[in-house]
Write a structure and sequence with these properties.
Blueprint (H helix, E strand, L loop, with lengths): L2 H134 L9 H10 L1
């Protein structure tokens, strides 16, 4: 065999193989590599976007949390003010009720004192009549002397 012919045929086979590879094998490989590279780039972009979204979400969460805390604090202050107002109102109502009860008790006591005085006057009038009866040794007619007894009651 001739060395030149072998080299020549090997060169032709090499070029045919190279042409076949470049024409039919290489484009799908480069397309697959580019697709994979694009997927990786998209994934990295999505990851970066996800990190940015996460940072924004955390910022929003911190703002919402701060807002909720301040709102909660404001509600607590408002509730404390309402509680204090309710306590003051209840205290005022209790004082008014106390004053009313004391006034009623004083009025009842005055009425009771007046009844007791009237009862004592009646008792004193009866005792005076009995004493006068004893002194005079005769019976005094209470019906006949009712006006005299009323004047005696009024003086006592």
């Amino acid at each position: 065999m001739n060395l030149n012919a072998t080299l020549f045929f090997q060169m032709i086979v090499f070029f045919v193989l190279a042409w076949f590879t470049m024409k039919f094998v290489w484009p799908p490989l480069t397309k697959a590599i580019e697709d994979r590279r694009q997927k990786i780039a998209d994934g990295l972009a999505a990851a970066d976007k996800g990190k940015a979204d996460l940072a924004q979400a955390q910022a929003r969460i911190s703002l919402i949390e701060a807002s909720a805390k301040s709102e909660n604090h404001a509600r607590m202050l408002e509730a404390e003010k309402q509680a204090a107002a309710l306590i003051d109102e209840a205290r005022r109502e209790a004082e008014a009720e106390k004053a009313r009860i004391i006034a009623q008790a004083k009025q009842d006591a005055e009425q009771e004192v007046q009844r007791a005085r009237d009862g004592l006057r009646d008792d004193v009038a009866v005792l005076a009549v009995k004493g006068a009866e004893q002194i005079l040794k005769r019976e005094v007619d209470a019906q006949a002397h009712a006006e005299l007894l009323n004047q005696l009651k009024a003086q006592l």
